[in-house]
Sequence to fold (448 residues):
Amino acid sequence: MKQYIEQNKDRFFEELFSLLRIPSISAKSENKADMKRCADRLVQLLLEAGADEAGVYPSKGNPVVYGQKIVDPSLKTVLVYGHYDVQPPEPLEKWNSDPFEPEIHDGAIWGRGANDDKGQLFMHIKAFEFLVRSGQLKHNVKFMFEGEEEIGSPSLPAWIEEHKDMLKADVCLVSDTTMISEKVPSINCGMRGLSYLEVKVVGPNKDLHSGHYGGAVANPITVLCEMIASLLDEDGRVTVPGFYDKVVELSKEDRELLGRAPFDMEEYKSFLDIAEVRGEKGYTTLERTGIRPCLDVCGIWGGYTGEGAKTVLPSEAHAKISMRLVPNQLSSEITRLFAEHFKAIAPACVKVEIKECEGGDGFLIPISSDAYKAASRAIGEVYGIEPVPSRGGGSIAVLAEVQKILGIDPLLMGFGLERDTIHSPNESYLLKQFFGGMESIALFYRYY
Fold:
């Protein structure tokens, strides 16, 4: 594979850049046509790589790309999942280059989607291409690429249910996660779930003059801040009743196994330019982002925020609340518990509205499986060190649905790094990881 990469890397860049130039932003309705354009391009790449068939399938939302190559029905089947939608690029002024005009410099590919997830799903297409053209493919391979992961995959579970016979496989192979570092590879054996809501606190029926009414009428922004502040106690624990009821406490042995992952606190703080970390008492930083649930405010607004002064007491205030969940915590249940609690703590001087935005359950996979062992052997061969099992702090909501509907485990062979700033300006993907990912994926098929 290494020689094949060297011989074809210029073509690989050209093909990948054709994907990265398409602003397939699922969160924006004005990019609807770009979603179809990106899906069509993926179909073309799959067919050129050696798929027997590939096409764009309609869903209730953005289209799903499906392709396959059946070598022999008696052989193992690998279902490759990825997503072609990307995050909005804003704030644009923070980018050092055009987010949709990819560049290569400083040993990395730069642009929106370079890592998440166009760059990573592209590795699978090229590893597949190599195996087909070299006559080494000994598996049936199916590809399922969606266009709504960045908005919570609202349409994909129903599409999977509708096409579950077509999607039958032995494992779901995914590259949409990060490694601990380029020197210490890792394989995620689980990811957190998500419950994401928008809350609205309404006070008076219109904006008021802050001089005439200030101090006499409740300010919705102040009330909202007080309510949010009460959601965490002094030990960093979420105060929503029932929030921890189904959280499974890991054994000492499991915590020690996960603790094998190297972690430099000073390097971590320096990278983020912070003086200290904060989180749930009694847990390490890696445990807080992997095996523990949390609650965060992702956005808050209200009143006048333009230039200069406007002495106004606002009628309403808003916030977006994200709760990352661990396996056994059901997103639907946590959403209900939060909504009940948030309304219960609201003082009589305001009214509360809650809108559910997106959600999904977490999952775990066994590290004793043949697929995990094959991935570990493959990555170990490429990187020269056995990968560490880890827990992903983020969420790929639909993978729990894949597990439930298709009865197969996801295998998370992600090659991104924290330095790639995937949802922020200046997203990038190290060439070393891009090529190493292709090599590792090709070896996975040899050992699985």
Notes: The mean pLDDT is 95. The chain is about 35% helix and 20% strand. The longest strand covers residues 193-202.
